[in-house]
Amino acid sequence: MKIINLNAIQILDSRANPTLQVDVILEDGSKGSFQVPSGASTGIHEAHELRDENMNFYHGKSVMRAVENVLNLREKLLNQDFTQESLDSFLIATDGSQNKEILGANAILGISVAFAKACAMHFSLPIYEYLRRVAFKINMENKKVRNLEDIHLFANIINGGLHSGNKLNIQEFMIVPTNGSPIEKIRAISEIYHELKSIIEEKYGKNDTAVGDEGGFAPSISKAEEALNLIVEAVKKANYEGLVTIALDSAASDFYDADLKLYEVEPGLKLDYKKLSAYYSDLVAKYPIVSIEDPFAEDDFEGFAYFMNNLPTTIVQNPFNKDSKIIVVGDDLLVTNPSRISMAMEKNLCSSLLLKINQIGTLSESLKAFSMANGAGWHTIVSHRSGETSDDFISDLAVGLSSSIKIGAPARGERVAKYNKLLNIYSKK
Length: 429
Ligand code: PGA
Ligand code: ZN
Hints:
alpha/beta; 14 strands; Enolase-like, domain 1
């Protein structure tokens, strides 16, 4: 496939910070455009997000150097024949650094995904179908196969940590509907979200129903149990009792004191990894929790390994694990990086991959991360970032890979875009 035009501009993300949009046009006129997301509770091992660091522009966060880097690649990329893999390898080699700090992972990812979208158009395939064929090496020309699998949705409806102004240190309290089609699951999420809003309004007043970065509510509570009680009540009120499980993302790197080796999981409550494991086990014994993401800090392998050897049993059937132990999801731990994933597999640190394409910086490496995790029998969850745009690519990626997806609450336009893409894919037209 030959690229005949490549462009990049600076746009804004959902937190009013600059990010990149990259546009690609192929020889036959097929077009692809991608708007790059950005995290807040980023893992220290993530690929490098290149920002200008000039305090006179957007508080140092402008991305004009990354834009320039894309434009400067025109000379090398235009009119050359590429596949997804050869393009991504070329970008990695041209950058040449360990973590893509020369060109910027944001610049590289923009080109990588814009190219994939243009290729989907070239083959007249929906993006999810194109991605499925690339991931599973299925013949592009055979247009007949259409095998959409149902996917699970992780909906973050109470926000804490770095995504909110409240005192909840655990970052995300998510609901995961277990029954029905994706369309029915989205309906459940929406109905529970509304019940939760009215419960928070009743308990804490109208002023407390403002939302955090991922669209979940951010009431002024500080204890995990308060958040979980609100969710259980909302699920009950919406008549989904027994049909919805709960997932947490601790993002524990953000409340870890590495010198003291203590986790401040709630204000004033500082625990070592063994006590924190017991804290999680208590929650799992009381609430229908089936999954915990980043329960320990990204390099606290001792904590992860200990927890994996002492996993609590869920009080409900776990849709992701037959033996009813919770699943442990690696986000900051794995950073979608194949070498971190194989290290975690060797050491038995977790049992599920959170897949964020901008943590690694190319689509090919993301697909490699997926296939490693999938091949090892891990659960996989394609994920948004807390800083997003209205780009809906990750919905296609999740459907294409038949993977779970984590896209926040069904509120805030940049999250709704992903929900609506799923509704478009799964609705009969
Ligand atoms: P981030 O958070 O996008 O701010 O890194 C999302 C997550 O931790 O899953
Ligand atoms: Zn996370």
